[in-house]
Write a structure and sequence with these properties.
TIM Barrel; globular
Length: 230
C-alpha cells in the first residue's frame, strides 16, 4: 500500500513551517501543501528549496486570511478578508468566477516562486464543494497535477492523489497505531492528513489548533514505517 503523510498549512507561520520540516526529516511526513497567503510564505519557499526531498503541493485558500487578488469584491468582507466559512457550499456564478481568478493567482504565485507543483488540495477541503467541482477539475487538468480525494471527486480516479483519504489522524496516542488502522483499509493508496507544527506567537493569534500541532509532531517523529508500506 502506498501511504502519503501530508502536512497541511506549510507557510502558515514560521513555527508551523519548521515543524513540518522536522516531521519530514525526523518523521514520516513525505508530502506537504503550501498556503500562498500564509504569514510565513516567503520563509516556507526558501526552506522548501533547501529541502528537495519533500514534495510540495498547494493548499488552496478560500476561508482564511486575505486573497492575493485585489479585485475580487465578491469573496471578501468589509475587512478585506475572505468572507467564507468552511460550511458554505452554495455559490453564485460571480463568486465562482472570482474564485477561479483567485485560485489561478495562488497557483501562479506558487509556480513563480520556482517551486514544482506536486498536487492540489485546499484549506478546509473547499475544493470538494459541489459548486467548485468543475473548476477544480479544470485546474488539475490544466496544470497536470492530481487532487486530494474528496467525496465529490471520488469518481475522478485518474485525477486523484490517492484512492482514499484518512482524516482521523490526531494529537492523541491512538495515532501511534495509525499503520495498524491503515492496514485494515482496502485500497492501493491512501493519504493521511496531518497538521504538525511548532507553536509560535503568530499561530496563537490566528489558529484554534495550536498546542495540538506539537503533539502531532511528536507522534509523527515516533512512527516507524512497516515493510508492507510502499
Amino acid at each position: 500500500m502506498k501511504v502519503i503523510f501530508n502536512a497541511d498549512d506549510f507557510g502558515l507561520t514560521n513555527g508551523v513551517t519548521d515543524g513540518i520540516i522536522k516531521a519530514h526529516l525526523n518523521g514520516v511526513i513525505n508530502s506537504t501543501t503550501l498556503m500562498m497567503n500564509g504569514k510565513a510564505v516567503d520563509y516556507a519557499i526558501a526552506i522548501a528549496k533547501q529541502t528537495p526531498s519533500l514534495p510540495i503541493g498547494i493548499h488552496l485558500v478560500l476561508t482564511y486570511g486575505k486573497p492575493l487578488c485585489t479585485d475580487v469584491p465578491e469573496l471578501v468582507n468589509a475587512n478585506g478578508d475572505f468572507k467564507f466559512t468552511k460550511d458554505i457550499q452554495q455559490l453564485s456564478p460571480c463568486e465562482i468566477k472570482q474564485i477561479e481568478q483567485e485560485w489561478r493567482t495562488q497557483i501562479e504565485a506558487f509556480r513563480s516562486a520556482g517551486l514544482t507543483l506536486n498536487h492540489i488540495d485546499s484549506h478546509h477541503h473547499v475544493h470538494g464543494w459541489v459548486a467548485l467541482k468543475d473548476l477544480i477539475i479544470t485546474l488539475a487538468k490544466e496544470y497536470h497535477v492530481p487532487l486530494r480525494y474528496t467525496q465529490t471527486l471520488k469518481d475522478e480516479k485518474d485525477l486523484l492523489y490517492t484512492d482514499k483519504l484518512w482524516a482521523r489522524f490526531s494529537n492523541n496516542n491512538d495515532s501511534l497505531d495509525v499503520f495498524q488502522q491503515l492496514k485494515k483499509v482496502k485500497t492501493d493508496s491512501i493519504e493521511v492528513i496531518t497538521h504538525p507544527g511548532i507553536v509560535d506567537q503568530d499561530l496563537r493569534q490566528i489558529s484554534s489548533y495550536v498546542d495540538q500541532r506539537e503533539q502531532e509532531l511528536e507522534i509523527l517523529c515516533q512512527l516507524n514505517v512497516p515493510n508492507w508500506v510502499n
